[in-house]
Amino acid sequence: MSAAAALQKAIFLRLSSDGALTGLIGSDGVRDHLQMRMDRPYVFIASIESRDASTASEPGEEHWVTIEARAGEGGNLTAQAITARVRHLLDDADLELDGFSLISLLHRRTRVAREAKAKGHVAEMLFRAVTE
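Above: the chain's sequence. Below: its structure in token form.
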């Protein structure tokens, strides 16, 4: 398993096991891919971009993780509540990764907007993680 896959698995487990978040999005509201016909609201891991961040003595990777929350029409407050909970769960979190160590996981930005094409509100959250 790659560090990115281990990170994705740990993020998915953290989000899907939180009662407060599932209260906002439902028990099956955390996904690892976009589902066009799924009821809203929901959260999914949209992408993970990884780069080498090795030092002279330690192998490592930097990961940029994009998580999206989608709410229906008029769902701006819902999207904001979901992103606040996701940020609480992941920002500076101490996640267990299979075969790797998580050095840091920090929130970098959140953008919430109504998108006509998505027929509702979409929140995009960006996190930076470093693994060894």
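The helical segments are 3-16, 19-25, 76-90.
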